[in-house]
Design brief:
This protein is of the alpha/beta class. Helices cover about 35% and strands about 20% of the residues. It has 2 domains: about 260 residues, Rossmann fold (3-Layer(aba) Sandwich); about 200 residues, 3-Layer(aba) Sandwich (Rossmann fold). The strands form 5 sheets. It has a 6-stranded mixed sheet, sandwiched between helices. The protein has a 4-stranded parallel sheet with strand order 8-7-11-14, with helices on both faces. It has a two-stranded antiparallel ribbon with strand order 3-4. The protein is globular. The two termini are about 40 Å apart.
């Protein structure tokens, strides 16, 4: 009851009607973490269409000019890719659909002060872009059903597959799918590639997949996969190591990996003879190196006949590492052993890196134009004070039994030990701030995502970032 009274008061303060907002509705963009900002960046920078006619011809005007966005990162529940291996895909769908309800309804967001949440109203998204590959792979039909026919939903997988097949029609080779473990387990990309290829008359498609276990997590500074301040191996670490039975670092490939060793990028534990008895990755670059080598070793072992010439970056976090991925692939193409090139049979000299973000932005624009045609018939009121909002899911510290790490996020065992059907609110949705998003992450936004960073920095909460 107190929350309801507080909502009414806040609506009065914002001069919003209690039953139905007068609004220029936002476009909702959703991801498991901050990686989806790469899709938002593609939308903000897109100039592919003529805004008057809708034809695919640049007119010098941003295609999403005049639109504003509500971005949601389900950071507390990520990485999504690990729920499949934990047998918790039904639980994952529940959490995704909670996020969809948050974006697609006139609901409340929270602000946390001294372990207490206060609640404020937000607007309904008029369309939703699911920037998360894993969410698209596991829950896109359920997402569309949950938000209803009036809210268009655009996912990333079809867009990425379309771009990869366009290149394959020019030059045949093997398409690599570099994605989270969960996305790879879903087979969402291979199934979509095969369906689209059949429709286009492409036969004998060659596909290889690699689950980038820990890469997205390390980019987002997840404590289980990367710790900025540590300088020795630690028990909380979950990534590839010498002793990880599923993701083992092969010491016979040490020279091939070429791991960075500066600072604390690579952590080793030594015995009395100076031998490294345990090794842990502590830099996103080293995760890239580990997984690209693993991918090519798999292709060698399985004797792929067509070299890898297309690589889909099937996780929204991976474009942050685009330059590193290209550099490592070039190194591996030229890597020699005893005068012989190790990977020339399975790796093309030039590999096209497919970022599904741009194709997703195009699809979203077309969906928006169609929606605006429908909305024009009803002539909705526009709220000129509307602005962007950037939300992140944080642990609900008011929930009984919640288990947190020293950094304030869920422990690994608690996160993947939860079960579906409990109807508990495990998270609260709060605005981005400098406590729930690391300073290093903001610096990455500033360097790599100038349009998104400018929008984030406009929000009053972030005046300290300027």
């Amino acid at each position: 009851m107190r929350k309801y009274i507080h909502l009414i008061c806040m609506m009065a303060a914002f001069q919003l009607p209690v039953f139905g907002f007068a609004q220029q509705q936002p476009i909702g963009v959703f991801d498991s973490g901050t990686g989806g900002l790469t899709v938002l960046e593609a939308m903000l920078s897109l100039d592919v269409f003529n805004n008057k006619t809708g034809e695919q011809k640049s007119d010098g005007i941003p295609d999403f000019k005049g639109e504003y966005f509500h971005y949601l990162a389900d950071q507390a529940n990520m990485p999504y890719g690990n729920y499949a291996s934990a047998g918790k895909t039904l639980f994952l769908k529940e959490q995704i659909l909670r996020c969809m309800r948050f974006l697609s309804t006139d609901t409340l967001y929270a602000k946390q002060t001294k372990e207490v949440f206060q609640f404020y109203p937000k607007l309904t998204a008029k369309m939703i872009v699911v920037a998360c590959n894993t969410a698209t792979a596991y829950a896109l039909p359920e997402i569309k059903k949950s938000v209803g026919q009036g809210i268009p939903v655009v996912g990333v997988i079809d867009a990425g597959c379309k771009a990869a097949l366009e290149f394959q029609q020019k030059q045949r080779g093997t398409i690599g799918v570099f994605a989270t473990v969960g996305t790879v387990a879903s087979a969402g990309y291979p199934k979509t590639l095969e369906r689209m290829a059949a429709a286009a008359g492409i036969t004998d498609l060659s596909i290889v997949s690699q689950g980038g276990y820990g890469l997205a997590e390390s980019i987002d500074r997840d404590w289980s996969f990367l710790a900025d301040q540590v300088n020795k191996v630690r028990s909380e670490y979950k990534g590839p190591s010498l002793t990880n039975p599923q993701y083992r670092i092969d010491t016979s490939l040490s020279a091939v990996y070429g791991f960075l060793r500066a600072g604390n990028s690579l952590l080793c534990e030594y015995d009395e003879k100076g031998n490294c008895t345990e090794m842990q990755l502590n830099d996103p670059v080293n995760y890239v190196r580990y997984h690209l080598v693993s991918l090519l070793e798999k292709m060698k072992l399985e004797q792929y006949r067509s070299p890898l010439n297309t690589l889909i970056l099937g996780c929204t976090h991976y474009p942050y590492m685009r330059d590193t991925i290209a550099q490592v692939l070039d190194e591996l193409y030229n890597y020699q052993e005893a005068g012989d090139y190790r990977y020339r049979k399975v790796l093309a000299k030039n590999v096209t890196l497919v970022d599904p973000a741009v194709e997703t932005a195009k699809e979203a624009y077309l969906a928006l134009r169609q929606l605006l045609k429908i909305q024009a018939k009803t002539k909705p009121n526009a709220d000129k004070s509307a602005k962007d909002a950037f939300f992140i899911a944080v642990p609900n510290v008011e929930l009984d039994g919640v288990q947190l790490q020293s950094d304030g996020w869920f422990t690994y065992d608690y996160k993947y030990g939860r079960t579906e059907g409990s109807n508990k609110s495990f998270v609260q949705f709060v605005p981005f701030n400098t406590q729930n998003v690391a300073p290093a992450t903001y610096e990455r936004f500033k360097r790599a995502l100038p349009f998104s960073y400018e929008r984030i920095s406009r929000v009053g909460t972030f005046s300290q970032m300027r």
